[in-house]
Specification:
Chain lengths: ~220, ~60
Amino acid sequence: MIFASKSPKSRLNRRGIQALIGAVVAAPLGYLFGRYLVALEKAGAVSVAGLGWSDVLALLLAAMMAVVGLVTILVSLSRRTLGRQINPEETRPATPSQVVFYAQNGLVLLLAGVMMAIPVLTPVLFSPLSPMIASAAMTGLIALFLVQTAGNIAIWAQSDELMRRAMAEIAGVSFAILQGLLFLWAAGEKLELLPSLRLWDAASVMMAAYLVIGMVITWRRGLAG
Amino acid sequence: MKNRLKVLRAERDWSQADLADRLEVSRQTINALETGKYDPSLPLAFKIARLFGQPIESIFQDEA
């Protein structure tokens, strides 16, 4: 048994290096994807002119969730690699139940990313958008939503009490903050002091806030350690 | 709430993952308990007490 405890500083350094590698890889990929989109629009293949700030925010969130979900699924394919991520102090491989749990987490995150991107990308890729394509996209979204909800319930059922506490806290804090902000915005809009918000704007902001609140609470609860 | 989990674990030469396996929780939960970021539920506190063969109050101390 290996019981060589790594210091918090060395763990921090490792995570810093991982973040740096991620940034170095992601920045050129993002730039190239942007150039690709511009080229596609010039060729008339896509139409990004109608995208608003909430669409860009939704695509950013979708990309983040999809990439993290994919990486989680890929890591869970190797029991040894997953074991190192779960227990950095040891060399034991992950158990089969841990593999299933992390693969499910990755899949749920990947599906969330796809679901966030579909309403934005469908009108971009199929411009002008026909009612048939829109209905097909909506049907797909509902199917993905049902699969994702089943995945979330399965994750809840397999989680231990700390994870469940964190999930409950994230839901509670998100509800308290977001319903307050929604009320204040709605009041400002009613009093004609604030511009009208589309439901998609609100959904994108709510997802961004939920992810930030989730990161803060999981870090505070020690789930990142 | 303070606890002696890390000391009790070290006395038995168990890693966080070993203790997590015995308590059927994640290693992150053990880490959060030891660093005081999370107080366990009563069922988990009883389980910890049974595992170490000590009363709950000798493992967990209220800081108030």
